[in-house]
Amino acid sequence: MTYCPKCGEKNEDDARYCNSCGAPLTAARRDYEKEREDQCEEECAGGPRSAPIIWGLVVVLIGLWIVFEFGLKNIRGLPAWVYEFGFWWFIPAIIGIAIIITGIRMIIRRD
After folding, report:
1. Number of Cα atoms under 13 Å in the Cβ half of residue 27
2. Where are the domains of the chain?
3. Rounded to an integer, what distance in angstroms lies between the CA atom of residue 102 and that of residue 31?
4. What does the pLDDT look like over 74-101, one tens digit per residue?
């Protein structure tokens, strides 16, 4: 069934015009299909806002690694933990947090 965008009346799927008010239904069908495609893309890909967040995390992690490995470890007189800091445990922790946040966003978005 196709619903009229103007009056909301039910019409047959193959109808070109509304039986009640005469409004064209083909544009409404295309708009609905476009909305559905956009919704599917957003649900499947995590939304258009998730990519910048993920790339932002990657850039921040690379920046932190560069600062620790090539910057802070070369400075004398810092606390011992700076020289012994193993950065690689941090990457799985950030990935895990990102997965948890994505899962929570998906649950909230469905409500």
Report:
1. 4
2. 2-45, 50-110
3. 29
4. 788 888 877 777 767 777 777 777 778 7
